[in-house]
Amino acid sequence: MSQLDLNQLDNMQYDVLREIGNIGAGNATTALSQMINSKIDMKVPKVDLLEFKELSDIVGGAENLVVGILFTLEGQIEGMMMFMMDMAAARHLVNSLMCDGNNTSLEFSEMELSALNEIGNIIAGAYLSSLSTLTSILITASVPYMAIDMAGAILSVPAIEFGKIGDKALLIETEFVDDDKAVNGYFILIPTVDSYGAILTSLGL
Amino acid sequence: MNEMIKVGMADLNVCVSPNAITTLGLGSCVGIILYDPIRRIAGMVHVMLPDSTKILNNDNKAKFADTGIDLLIKRMMEIGADRRVLIAKIAGGAQMFAFGNNSDMMRIGERNVEATKIKLAQLGISIKAEDTGANYGRTIEFYPENGSLLIKSVGKERKIL
Asked: N or C end of chain B, less CB within 10 A?
């Protein structure tokens, strides 16, 4: 397994990681789009090496209220994957799925929370299975863990995992947008350093 | 109040009245405020992990409860704080996700709080107020002018400690 220094990634490695984000999120977006029967566009993925203090800015500020659905990854790739969206997006998705267009409540019922969890499950599954197919690496995801809170507080969980190995977090981040801009969210893939090595090695880098 | 000084994740800063100091969206991290009530000098550190000695990559001292507190005291003394009168207020250390049996990851917030308390006890700094644990994020603001700590959480009443 190649040892990887996150501070010294070359352009080729960045491109490969970006492409992984592209393929994974592409599949996830398709799954999401089919689920709510609406066209969803995806932006070009970003691969960022961020200092912890910059981390929460990516999702519109540390205090921004978001829904975070977290999976821990096991198998040959370890780390975390997170699907984050703001409250309006979560409300829109739940309404689409449960055919309840007029509900504007900022609170989710137990049934709706369960639906959100399932949305997370399906799109994370799509993301990870495409990644797994691409790299021929077995990736197993945990059950979804969900939290609704400030973005900074939610991101602290994967940040702490990164903190154990370095002073920066490498994110593969993809933003997706619905036609009417109601759905706006992020996929964030956060493998451990060893797992980055495994991904790049499996692709011959 | 003139200026609100921001402290990021794994970051620290100091602040003198009438300015105030804040950190946004504390999750499992712990926000530690040290305060010299006589000179109205405050310092805040936002630590992510309990113990620098268990981690190889420990250049960023503000990341850990043990080294973060040491560095914060040093920075506060540089601007005139008196080490002997310092008191502490702490917040954070929540468990954001209800992880199943992965004990290490599950208890990180709790372990951060424990490590903070141990370190402060070793230094003989008493904790005057705390709002730790539970499962929600916190934004904290500290006002050296009167030593009050404002805690804001989603869907909860503001607390002043």
From this structure: N
Asked whether residue A159 is domain-assigned, the answer is yes
Q: What pTM, to 2 d.p., does this model score?
A: 0.84
Identify the domain containing residue A26 by its residue range: 6-202
The tally of domains found in chain A comes to 1
Q: In Å, how far are B20, B129, B137 from B159, measured between CA atoms? A: 16, 11, 13
How far apart (Å, rounded) are the C-alpha atoms in residues A81 and A173?
A: 10
> Per-residue confidence of chain A (205 residues) as pLDDT tens digits?
345 566 677 788 778 877 887 888 888 888 888 887 778 887 777 777 777 777 777 777 788 888 999 988 888 888 888 888 888 888 888 888 887 777 777 788 888 899 888 888 888 888 888 888 888 888 888 888 899 999 889 988 888 887 877 777 777 777 777 766 656 777 788 777 777 778 878 877 7
Q: What is the phi/psi pair of residue B2, to 5°? A: -100, -55
CB contact under 8 A, A166 and B57: yes
Cα of A157 to nearest chain B Cα, Å: 7
For residue A41, the surrounding DSSP H or E stretch is strand A40-42
Q: State the Cα–Cα distance between residues B10 and B139, nearest whole angstrom.
A: 15
Q: For residues B145 and B40, what is the distance between their CA atoms, to the nearest angstrom?
A: 6
Amino acid at B152: K
CATH number at residue A27: 3.40.1550.10
The ipTM (two decimal places) reads 0.85
Domain ranges in chain B are 4-160
**B15 flagged as catalytic:** no
- Assigned domain for A19 exists: yes
Q: Give me the CATH topology for the region B4-160.
A: 60s Ribosomal Protein L30; Chain: A; (3.30.1330)
The encoded tokens of residue A187 equal: 């996929």
Residues in chain B within 8 Å Cβ distance of A62: 24-25, 139
